[in-house]
């Protein structure tokens, strides 16, 4: 079991997303891998698709994935809670990480389609 890096949900496998952490750019110039559950991946991709890349965010905060203090966009998460069922919470994610999530989502969906065809 592993945990989603955004919502903390424990699931058997996560979807890998490559992010570039500014504090680790010399140690890991190729980036580091973060794991997201399917729900967080879809939510972050939806945010990426609604955000205009030319429109920089006026909110400056720390990105939940890479830790960079830059312009961020709110991504709505659905965090499982034993007493309430699901709690909705916004986390801040920078545009660069949103773009990486979008690429990972496209790659994940292609793999899903290929697996569907392999089973038939």
TrEMBL record:
It comes from the Archaea. It holds the Pfam family FpoO. InterPro entries: F420H2-DH_FpoO. This is F420H2 dehydrogenase subunit FpoO.
